Amino acid sequence: NILAHGLLSGKFNVNSQFSNTDLRSRVNLFSATHIHRAMKVVDTVRFVANELCLSPSQVAISYALSTIDVTSVLVGVKSIEQAHCNFSHTKNLPFWAVDMINQSCEFNGF
Q1: CA–CA separation, 15 vs 18, rounded Å?
Q2: Can you list the pairs that 62-70 forms with residues at least 24 positions away whose Cβ atoms lie under 8 Å?
Q3: What pTM was computed for the model?
Q4: In this model, does residue 1 exceed pLDDT 80?
Q5: pLDDT at residue 104 above 90?
Q6: How far apart are CA 14 and CA 66, in angstroms?
Q7: Burial, 97: exposed, middle or buried (Cβ in 10 Å; 0-12, 13-18, 19+)?
Q8: Percentage of residues of the chain with pLDDT beyond 70
Q9: What is the average pLDDT across 62-90?
Q10: What does the pLDDT look like over 90-102, one tens digit per residue?
Q11: CB–CB of 52/93 below 8 Å?
């Protein structure tokens, strides 16, 4: 999942709670075991987004597309506006940004 079930959108934090009917309540990424490490990656994505004047979602999508093995991404959206926002400024990330996210993922076990 490119946006890690919404985690890489920047909308959630370690205190976010989900109802039993929400898929995220059953996804390991949001469990107490993993959420703190995952949030360190999210913090890196937020930093890159801030530096490049992009949203965290745009950075996550651009990062995925920067991977040599990825030629397209599937992203669930709730509205046309959200789709437009996610993809309107998707672009090639500078090397330093890709490297920073790679290092954060590796250091945090993702």
Answers
A1: 10
A2: 62/90, 62/91, 62/92, 62/93, 63/93, 63/97, 63/98, 63/101, 64/2, 65/90, 66/92, 66/93, 66/98
A3: 0.83
A4: no
A5: yes
A6: 28
A7: buried
A8: 98
A9: 80
A10: 778 999 999 999 9
A11: yes
- Does residue 25 register a pLDDT over 80? yes
Is 20 exposed, middle or buried, given 0-12, 13-18 or 19+ CB atoms closer than 10 A? exposed
- What is the distance between the alpha carbons of residues 37 and 108, in angstroms, rounded to a whole number? 6
- SS3 labels along the chain: CCCHHHHHHCCCCCCCCCCCCCHHHHCHHHCCCCHHHHHHHHHHHHHHHHHHCCCHHHHHHHHHHHCCCCCCCCCCCCCHHHHHHHHHCCCCCCHHHHHHHHHHHHHCCC
Structural contact between residues 36 and 14, judged by C-beta atoms closer than 8 angstroms: yes
Structure tokens at 5: 């079930």
Q: How many residues does the chain have?
A: 110
